[in-house]
Amino acid sequence: MKIEKLDTRTYTCGLLELAEQGVIDWEAIARSALAYMSEDEVEDMARCDFDLDADEEDEEDEEEEEEGICDKEGTPLDEGDDVAWTDPETGEVREGTIDKINGEVLTIDFADGGEVEAFGGECKYIPLTIPEKVG
Length: 135
Description:
24% strand; two-stranded antiparallel sheet; alpha+beta; rod-shaped; SH3 type barrels
């Protein structure tokens, strides 16, 4: 495909025009440019044009990790919460209370005795229910 020389940014303007006409896909241009550029050039563009800083992303990831652990339905879990845990080997469901949380691992004490270390995704939060007054 021939690009007509228009100014000092001949190829830039030509690619933009072809994309606006739908001849070339915007994503293809972006992927090609990112692959062509050095990592330093990509970093500079990310910081200048998109306010993207790798250090900020790390801080956001740490904040997300600090938010806590969730059950398999996304409900946040905390020490003292009642949960139902499903034994991955037998399929047996047991109810217990979260005794402690260490990273992604929960220690669950069972009402009928014993305890287990489990991941939040293996549990389901049991909301407190108040019996209705009969009356």
